[in-house]
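FW: tagging you since you asked about this chain on Friday. Here's the raw sequence from the shared folder, copied in full. Didn't touch anything.
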Amino acid sequence: MRNRVIRLMMILGVTFGLIFFPILGASQGKEPSDTLFQDDPLAHALYDKMKQALQDAETIYCRSQYQFEIPNLTPIYCQYELWMKKPNYARMEAYTMGSLRGILVGDGEFFWIYWPNGRPKYNYEQMDEYLKTSYNVYTKVLSPVGHHSLAHMIDKLGAGTLMTIIEPSVFHGYIDPFDYYIDGVKSLGFENINEEECDVIEISFMKGQRTRQLWLSREDHLPRKLKEVIRVQQILSKEEVWTDLSLNQEIDDDKFSWKPPHDWQEWSLPDYKQGLLEPGTEAPDFDLFLVDGNRIKLSEQRGKVIWLMFWRAGCQACREEMPHLSELYRKYKDKGLMVLGFNFADQKKIGLDFLKENSADFPNIIDTSEPAQKVFFKDYQKLEGLSGVPLNYIIDREGKVVDAWYGHDTETKPWIEAFKKVGIE
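HL: got it, structure written out here
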């Protein structure tokens, strides 16, 4: 069961921490829609007011009950508290069953993260190595104003959070990347939450791959309740309930200051790149079906240069890379290049719609079976528990790895040097 949970977390691009809550309806008692809907300007204006309220506030404090559901697995619950202050201060404390798990302190320059009761253990770690750095350790990362994401940092606290439903760093001037993929916003009426009148809206992202419901207070336009549905191989759902929310109240600067005790040591996750297969390694074989119904066995493609790209529909960088791969495929396929897309995460219809939307004319696998997930999580990545997409491999005509990298790298363009090595120019 634990391995299954970790796989689902990796599909969503995080490293640890999960939670549950059953999907309930909005004021009408309906579940979030699986179909696309037209954008309602009035409902969209409510969403924009929420973002503006976040941006305009000088300070914000809230407490959130955070819950997550994976079908057929035991519910997990956790809580977090959040303090934010202009221009670039933040603090998050995360709890499981009332026990403090991790603390993030943003002092304007760095995010300091530490774990009063011991840091979480990653699957790739041997127990003896983990015990050496399990206590009295901290990590820190730069947090430039407008360029950090608290939503992505919260899972590092180890309480069970899988990103927050909305991006708190909008308060600090960050632009939520999901906003570029809004298909529509619609009204679900209104409802009282803890004696506050709230407008209820639903937002669709990436043609329904992800939907959010927000209960927005008519007084300050900020959420009091939030739900999110993510449609990968299973339908995953999150819920938050915000309480004790206060705006523009004085928060002492000491709340955003922390220095490690003298006997503590700095600790950090290994670089994801350490989990990639080294050049010269024989590319692990697989034998799976393409979306057109034909079977493909990697070892039978000897004589071709393979660009193997692992992707999922909810990944923004994958959406940017897909048209680029189509262009390269058309340009170099007569010189022996085969581009092969591999989706291990999404419901098939969502994956097929994604390919159609992006005019991907190269072969693709969409397969969420155990053998397909093994290819991604174990065969092509060596650090269990650290993973990401897009994951790119260039494989030469003899079936050996030439190069590998994460992300859509438009700056260094690693494929140019890799193409030269395999004779494609």
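FW: DSSP finds eight helices and 19 strands in the chain.
HL: agreed, and The CA atoms of residues 233 and 347 lie 5 Å apart.
FW: great, closing this out.
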